UniProtKB/TrEMBL annotation:
Highest taxon in the source lineage: Bacteria
GO MF terms, alphabetically ordered: metallopeptidase activity
Residue intervals passing through the bilayer: 27-48, 214-237
Protein name according to UniProt: Hypothetical membrane protein
Alphabetical UniProt keywords: Hydrolase, Membrane, Metalloprotease, Protease, Transmembrane, Transmembrane helix
Xref: InterPro entries: PrsW
Length: 256
């Protein structure tokens, strides 16, 4: 099974490399993508360095990011045939992305590490989500810069601001939920929960694109963005406190 994990990782990396080679990167968007990924990955590896499987999680998340975009592109055609193209990213991205990320958590926690508690599962999920974010935003920066090109620099600044405001850390929240479900032997239930939260995040931006002149999708989406930020920050604080408590209790159990 461990060899299957490495084979799937290499295959996903190859697909994603092909994907990113075809993206319309301009100098500013390419620089923004590299800097964003370098900062995010470095912080992830540093802050989670004492947890098992973190590097594997980051690599898997990045590896499937380009693959997810390719699958999402094909899903748009299926939605159009079903007359649901107005759903946009809410209709396909949550399913493909959450399943791919969850698969990584499953493989890493089964084939690579031996989780000691539910925290190990969740931290691997967080790492997968952050690795995915590093790759996904590279595509977003490239396309948004080209689509909103006042100039190379102005376009990428607008893209970066939009992605930062919309909570680029939310993928760690989604995958953390499904990873927790895996640790509790309830993977399907929590994976569905992660997909539905992801759908909620994507729904209003999709409706805003479908109804160009309507302001209500933007207004309705604001509470969702705020709620996701609150949930992400609260989750990070809660995980850190729980991890610190667990580490402090280990010597006591050893002495007992």
């Amino acid at each position: 099974m461990k060899y299957l994990y490495y084979l799937l990782t290499l295959g996903a990396l190859a697909v994603s490399a092909f994907h990113y080679a075809g993206e319309p990167f301009l100098p500013a968007s390419a620089l923004a993508a590299v800097v964003f990924a370098a900062v995010l990955v470095s912080l992830t590896l540093f802050l989670l360095r004492r947890r098992p499987g973190i590097a594997h999680g980051v690599v898997w998340g990045f590896a499937v990011s380009g693959l997810a975009v390719e699958l999402n592109t094909n899903m748009t055609h299926l939605l159009a045939r079903a007359g649901l193209d107005w759903l946009g990213a809410a209709g396909y991205a949550p399913l493909t992305e959450e399943v791919l990320k969850f698969l990584g958590v499953l493989l890493i926690c089964t084939c690579v590490i031996r989780p000691r508690s539910w925290l190990d599962y969740v931290f691997v999920g967080v790492a997968v989500g952050l690795g995915f974010t590093a790759g996904e935003n590279a595509t977003a920066f490239a396309r948004m810069t080209v689509d909103n090109l006042d100039s190379d620099s102005a376009g990428v600044i607008g893209a970066v601001v939009i992605r930062l405001v919309s909570n680029p850390l939310s993928h760690s929240l989604f995958t953390g939920l499904s990873a927790y479900g895996l640790s509790q032997k309830q993977p399907v239930r929590w994976l569905i929960a992660a997909i539905m939260v992801h759908v909620t995040k994507n729904l209003f931006p999709s409706l805003s694109a479908a109804f160009d002149d309507a302001i209500w999708p933007v207004l309705a989406g604001l509470p969702v963005v705020v709620a996701l930020w609150v949930a992400t920050i609260w989750g990070a604080i809660a995980l850190r406190k729980k991890a610190a408590t667990t580490q402090c209790s280990l010597p006591e159990r050893a002495l007992a």
